[in-house]
Amino acid sequence: MNSTELTLKVLDAQSGCKKSFAYICENYYKPSFRFAMKLSKHPDLAKDITQEAWTTVAKDIKSLKEPSVFKAWLFRIIYRRFIDTQRKHKLQSLEDSAVPEPYQEEENEELDISRYINQLPENERYTLYLFYFEQMSLSEIAVVSNVAVGTVKSRLFRARAQLSIWLNEDEVRK
Question: What are the helix and strand counts (H, E) for the chain?
Answer without folding.
Answer: 8, 0
